[in-house]
Amino acid sequence: MSGLRYVYAVCRPFEAALQAQLGGVAGCPPTAVHHQGLVAVVSTVPADEFDEGPLRHRLEDPEWLTATARAHEQVIDALTTVTTPLPLRFATVLPDDSAVRVLLETHAAEIRAVLDRLAGRVEWSVRVYLGDERGAEEAERLAARLHEELRAAAEESRLHPPRILKVTDDEERAWGRNLLDAAYLVPRRQSGGFVETVDKAREVLPEGGVRVHLTGPWAPYSFGELGGGR
């Protein structure tokens, strides 16, 4: 059975080359499928691993899931250095290049509109954790105030359900309760000021184990509507 197409993202055509050593999902280097002024970045992956049945089984394997998600994000991160990609949903798999072109043509107007809105912008993630419930009331006010400040500094924002930043069980206990989990869409050239706002918030943290966790800049995972989402 021939290989399938794993689709990472869609974007405008770009001239810069991706990293030569970029492996991609399943160790398959990414390539580009062009159609009507749009580009889908894909890898040709083995059907015995990514066809519907095998893929459903693989998604239940934590080790495989972690490795594949890491490879997926590495390609998106590489794209972010040369263009503004619209990431697709993790494990978007299509039968062949023709199906990829149908995707681009069917959603062409929507894709172009989203890419225009996202051009030159990146996503920053901010999470606030409370390690000691004795400081809960003040920490909750701080998290709400920080979100308002960052929302004002960003073009768009998204609030996500609270979650635990878990690396090990000990670290999960150390981070504590999640008070804020938000994404912010920021023009790349304004990212320095955005980071400075977060740093200033860290300087006035109350006692009680409050932590502000900033990551980015990312591709705008939270702000694209075409099967997107991290």
Automatic annotation (TrEMBL):
PROSITE patterns in alphabetical order: PROKAR_LIPOPROTEIN
Keyword Lipoprotein: no
One Pfam family in the UniProt entry: GvpL_GvpF
Localization annotation: Gas vesicle
UniProt keyword list: Gas vesicle
InterPro entries tied to this protein: GvpL/GvpF
Major location (coarse): other
Protein family according to the UniProt entry: Belongs to the gas vesicle GvpF/GvpL family.
Protein name (database record): GvpL/GvpF family gas vesicle protein
